[in-house]
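FAQ

Q: What does a record look like?
A: Structure on top, sequence underneath. For example:
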């Protein structure tokens, strides 16, 4: 087998595609594995642009894959970073309540944490102030000691190095074009894989549809903006999060302490107008714009999962002042002048069921004996990627053997 007709071909060199290759090598040490990536290097999109938070696993309902995998993934990545000497910040997380309604939300998160067997503690406002003096909370807060932060790009580079050392071929600047009679056509020629795995993130649904999957699903992109504190500005000891609206999969704008101890606000969940709508008109795609605006318009009219209010609130966050003002409700005081620098924006490749007009809250994948398609790998997919990849490879083995 060669690079162009490998045993396994993976489309997409994000964190899921890379960890899938790592797991395949564990399960099939003699197998040839090729990863194709349309960009000039791995991790250019969500995997290299996310917050870097290793989530603990208390946001998710017990019947979800996110709940089953997040706690394990958190531990696995913390261990990995220690083993491979990668930057790791054991900063923890405070979830604070700003009103009586959010106190009820704290109780629900505590309940989910207990069901999911996550280390979590309900603490008083006084105890929260001892952890982070600037954090504001009404009566009590949730303390998550196992939440940590990493440098996502550093993690991606580490996995890439390991894969190359183990003989995995990573072909950059190689974009999927279409399914062909015997395999796939790409910008660098045809490939004939023994088995195809689609981990293409923002375009996973389109590729899956070429294979008869993702019939009821499409990717609906949301833009995540980050606003960094000045080097001589705000310094927090821990991540500070609000109680999220559990009707949707977004966690709300919050303060993150990065692996390098910098403070940033974000991410937002602003509806994007095309899939790679990072800044200005760059990567503009008219076909995607028409499709996505059509979906957004339907959601706006029906107001499913509170989309109308979400869209209004999120669009305001293009304003630095408004974003700082909203995030500032999590702290006792904040200096607007501390935040002046935007970070690299990210795009969340969020799956939506176009028939029910509901966002897919959990990881979602489909496949058969010839191909497998990871359709929804959004937060906390980075945290979950190691155990998620193991689960996916187990599913692939079953499908191939049937």
């Amino acid at each position: 087998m060669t690079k162009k007709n490998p045993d396994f071909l993976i489309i997409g060199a994000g964190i899921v595609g890379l960890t899938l290759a790592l797991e395949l090598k564990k399960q099939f040490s003699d197998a040839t594995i090729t990863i194709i990536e349309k960009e000039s290097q791995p991790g250019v999109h969500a995997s290299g642009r996310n917050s870097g938070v290793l989530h603990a696993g208390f946001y998710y309902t017990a019947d979800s894959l996110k709940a089953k995998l997040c706690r394990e993934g958190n531990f696995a990545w913390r261990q990995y970073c220690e083993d491979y000497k990668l930057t790791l910040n054991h900063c923890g997380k405070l979830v604070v309540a700003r009103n009586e309604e959010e106190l009820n939300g704290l109780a629900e998160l505590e309940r989910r944490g207990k069901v999911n067997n996550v280390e979590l503690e309900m603490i008083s406002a006084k105890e929260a102030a001892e952890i982070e003096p600037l954090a504001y909370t009404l009566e009590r807060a949730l303390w998550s000691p196992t939440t940590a932060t990493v440098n996502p790009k550093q993690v991606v580079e580490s996995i890439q190095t390991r894969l190359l050392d183990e003989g995995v071929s990573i072909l950059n600047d190689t974009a999927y074009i279409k399914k062909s009679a015997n395999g796939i056509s790409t910008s660098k020629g045809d490939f004939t894989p023994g088995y195809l795995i689609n981990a293409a993130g923002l375009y996973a649904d389109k590729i899956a549809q070429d294979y008869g999957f993702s019939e009821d699903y499409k990717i609906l992109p949301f833009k995540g903006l980050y606003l960094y504190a000045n080097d001589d500005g705000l310094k927090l000891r821990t991540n500070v999060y609000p109680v999220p609206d559990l009707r949707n999969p977004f966690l709300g704008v919050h303060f993150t302490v990065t692996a390098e101890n910098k403070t940033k606000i974000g991410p937002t969940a602003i509806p994007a107008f095309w899939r790679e709508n990072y800044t200005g008109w760059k990567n503009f795609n008219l076909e995607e714009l028409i499709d996505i605006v059509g979906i957004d318009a339907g959601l706006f009219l029906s107001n499913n999962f509170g989309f109308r209010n979400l869209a209004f609130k999120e669009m305001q966050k293009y304003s630095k002042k408004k974003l700082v003002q909203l995030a500032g409700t999590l702290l006792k005081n904040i200096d607007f002048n501390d935040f002046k620098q935007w970070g690299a924006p990210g795009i969340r490749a969020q799956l939506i069921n176009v028939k029910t007009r509901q966002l897919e809250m959990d990881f979602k994948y489909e496949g058969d004996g010839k191909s497998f398609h990871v359709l929804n790998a959004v937060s906390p997919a980075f945290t979950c990627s190691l155990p998620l990849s193991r689960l996916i490879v187990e599913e692939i083995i079953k499908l191939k053997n049937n």
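Q: Is there anything notable about this one?
A: The chain has two domains: 1-52+151-216+362-402, 217-354.
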